Amino acid sequence: xxxxxxxxxxxxxxxxxxxxxxxxxxxxxxxxxxxxxxxxxxxxxxxxxxxxxxxxxxxxxxxxxxxxxxxxxxxxxxxxxxxxxxxxxxxxxxxxxxxxxxxxxxxxxxxxxxxxxxxxxxxxxxxxxxxxxxxxx
Length: 137
Prior knowledge:
3 helices; about 140 residues; 5-stranded antiparallel beta sheet; 5 strands
């Protein structure tokens, strides 16, 4: 198991750094393109939500931790922030049978993430939001 960690200010300006960090390690692990696309789309969604909503009164940090295992080939991707407590999994999934105009705003990104990943878990511990994505590849 190899572990990599990136901590930075949770701002949209740092999105490209987060994505480059994730893609670099997935490529080094020979992650198949389909899984890499699912992981990067999910990671972008989660990080952008942290940058937008975690710190409403200012700025704070986010940590992205990647654990890549070989047997089985899998990724555990954890996002940690000290922002306001928020469990994105607590909200019911959007009704995708409705048109975009009929659906309430929000929730589609976490829904796509739950569909793309093998497991998604949330915990609030030690004053931090901890959202963990797991994907076999």
